[in-house]
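Why should sequence recovery work at all? Because a backbone constrains its sequence more than one might expect. Tight turns favour small or flexible residues, buried strands favour hydrophobic ones, and helices have their own preferences. The token representation captures these environments compactly. In the example below, the structure is given first.
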């Protein structure tokens, strides 16, 4: 905070001003089990999705210019421009133990996502499409990538029917990446697409 000098003009300005204190934004708090203790015979794992960020990702793409008199049905092999794979703590080895986490991710995101080891990568993508109007087009394949943080605790036994919750993530929270169903489509320069959608991301690659 700057120091206020004892000047009449400054004093008058301060009298008319409303001072709003600046506070640093609090970091996101990791989720934790509702109780400190647990019964290892009943409560084995407690999991929660802390954050879920959704981003459209174009994985394969081809830009095409259709001249007058050349419209009709076409077949085109798409070029890979990106990919998405499921990961847990940056590892591609996603065990079945984490399926419940991905199910919760889908609930938080509002749509179904891959819940086991999966990737958008494939050897060759060839698609057929029908263009009835001359213009600039983009033929795409892509998905909605979901990434964020999760909390995972296991019930560590301390007695025959008593235990305590133990955080399995050394950094308090773990990280994950997954993705929604893959979509294939065609966009054009002539038709705007809603911002933030996969179709808008594909259209931006045409170079309209």
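From this structural description, the recovered sequence reads:
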């Amino acid at each position: 905070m700057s120091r206020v000098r004892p000047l009449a003009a400054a004093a008058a300005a301060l009298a008319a001003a409303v001072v709003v204190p600046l506070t640093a934004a609090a970091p996101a708090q990791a989720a934790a089990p509702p109780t400190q203790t647990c019964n290892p015979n009943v409560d084995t794992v407690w999991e929660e999705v802390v954050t879920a960020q959704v981003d459209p990702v174009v994985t394969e793409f081809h830009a095409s210019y259709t001249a007058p008199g050349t419209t009709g049905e076409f077949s085109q092999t798409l070029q890979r421009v990106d990919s998405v794979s499921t990961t847990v703590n940056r590892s591609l080895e996603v065990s079945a133990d984490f399926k419940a986490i991905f199910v919760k991710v889908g609930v938080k995101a509002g749509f179904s996502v891959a819940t086991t080891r999966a990737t958008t990568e494939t050897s060759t993508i060839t698609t057929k499409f029908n263009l009835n109007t001359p213009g600039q087009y983009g033929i795409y394949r892509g998905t909605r990538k979901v990434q964020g943080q999760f909390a995972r605790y296991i019930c560590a036994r301390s007695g025959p029917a008593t235990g305590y919750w133990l955080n399995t993530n050394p950094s308090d929270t773990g990280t994950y990446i997954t993705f929604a169903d893959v979509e294939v489509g065609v966009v054009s320069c002539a038709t705007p697409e809603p911002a933030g959608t996969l179709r808008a991301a594909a259209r931006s690659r045409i170079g309209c």
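A few observations help interpret the result. The chain has one domain: 37-203.
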